[in-house]
Design brief:
Oligomer: single chain
Number of helices: 2
Helix content: 25-40%
Structural class: alpha+beta
Strand order of the largest sheet: 1-2-3
Shape: elongated
Strand content: 25-35%
Number of strands: 5
Distance between the termini: 62 Å
Radius of gyration: 27 Å
Largest sheet: 3 strands, antiparallel
C-alpha cells in the first residue's frame, strides 16, 4: 500500500494506492482509496475507543496493576545534606550513585 498526496481545493488530500501487482507486472493499480474519508473515519473510531480508556485511567491510575499511590507521609531521604558520588558505567550510558565518604 502506497500513500500519495494530491491537491484539491487548496488542500492536500491523501490517496491510498495498492500497486503491488502493478509494480511487479506493469499493470494498473488494483485499488485506489480516497484517504480523506478514510482518515476521518479511522480518527473518529480511535477517539471513540480511546476516550473511555483515558477517562478510566485518569480516575484510577494505580488500579490496573493493583498498585498503591505514593504516600506523602512516607519518609523520603534528604539528600541535600549528604554528598553523593556519581560514577559513569557502560561508557557513560548510565550512572551509579553512592554516598561519598
Amino acid at each position: 500500500m502506497t500513500l500519495r498526496y494530491h491537491t484539491r481545493g487548496g488542500k492536500e488530500l491523501p490517496t491510498y494506492v495498492c500497486q503491488r501487482d502493478g509494480i511487479a507486472n506493469g499493470h494498473a493499480p488494483c485499488t485506489l482509496i480516497p484517504g480523506h474519508t478514510l482518515d476521518e473515519r479511522i480518527s473518529g473510531f480511535l477517539i471513540s475507543q480511546l476516550t473511555p480508556l483515558a477517562e478510566a485511567a485518569g480516575r484510577r491510575p494505580y488500579g490496573s496493576r493493583q498498585l498503591r499511590p505514593p504516600r506523602p507521609d512516607y519518609p523520603v531521604a534528604d539528600l541535600s545534606r549528604e554528598r553523593i558520588q556519581r560514577r559513569p558505567v557502560l561508557g557513560g550510558l548510565i550512572r551509579e550513585y553512592e554516598r561519598a565518604a
